[in-house]
Amino acid sequence: MVVEPIFSFGVIADVQYCDCPPTEVRFYRKSTDKLEECLTMLNKQDLAFTLDVGDLIDRDYPSFEIILQEYQQAKAQIYRTLGNHDYSVEPEWLADVPKRIGLPASGYYDFVHDNWRFIVLNGTEVSTYAHPPGSEAFQQAEKLMEELEKEGKSWAKPWNAGVSNQQLRWLEQRLKKARRANQKVIVMGHYPLYPEDPHNLWNAEEVITALEQSGNVMAYFNGHNHAGNYGQKKGIHYLNFKGMVDTPDQNTFAAVHVHTDHLQVQGFGREDSRELGFG
Please, where are the H alpha helices in 8-154? Predict the structure, then answer.
């Protein structure tokens, strides 16, 4: 007997569009066609919403207009997070980026669907690219990256970033609220947390600690590492979805079907299908 899911949602990672020549591994102009194919397929599914895990564009502020117009085909609501390439724009547009893609100024937020809480992190908050050079936020990011470099961390890279202490406290508060409401939680961000990888969030360990202490987080979903990745630690599934911009002709995206005891990931194209059990 086929058991119907409680609800389903889509996941799209690293569309990374720009009107730019391809590299050996990234095919920027192809992203409009891939996104159109992706949304056509997802529109055939009964989706509650779709998560876009960041890097909507590769560079240039006008790229947002092109790719957001493609997204208008989506039947389901889109929830987005910020990626590092979303800030590859002219300095005068940096502060406008969250608003341009429909996010609050902080870049982080949460929402509830069918007694599941979805928490969306802003991993670009402490970074060298989301703030003007010389600003206090820029200097804070440089200091953190230097400290990680001294510790020999492989993820001490300028294309990565971190979350602030304020955002960490907010995350802990939202997790407590979910626990009091007896809600299961899925957390979404652009940067991987686990397993250890050169693409990881600078302060991934602090975020992981908050997720583990909560006891009600089922999964963390992200992009950024276009090759994809997966790990499980203390009952939490960490799934890095593959990047759409890679390859000239193969697409990648997913539909996630939520059940009482597992998440069924239905992969399309290069994305793997897998079952993520609870407990």
Answer: 31-42, 63-71, 97-100, 136-150
If you average pLDDT over residues 87-111, what whole number do you get?
A: 96
Its pTM surpasses 0.90: yes
Q: How far apart are CA 67 and CA 32, in angstroms?
A: 7
CB 115 within 8 A of CB 107: no
Per-residue pLDDT of 166-187, as tens digits, reads 999 999 999 999 999 999 999 9
Q: Which of 71, 66, 80 is nearest to 28 (CA)?
A: 66
CATH homologous superfamily for the domain 7-269 = Metallo-dependent phosphatases (3.60.21.10)
Separation between Cα atoms, residue 174 and residue 157, nearest integer Å: 29
Length, in residues, of the chain: 279
| Residue whose pair of structure tokens reads 């991934």 in the numeric block | 204
- 212-239: buried (b, 16+ CB within 10 Å) or exposed (e) per residue? eebebbbbbbbbbbbebbbbeeeebbbb
Beta bridge partners of 187: 119, 220
The backbone torsions φ and ψ at residue 39, rounded to the nearest 5 degrees and listed phi first, read -70, -35
Give the separation between CA 41 and CA 39, rounded to whole angstroms.
5
Residue holding tokens 């300028």?
Answer: 158
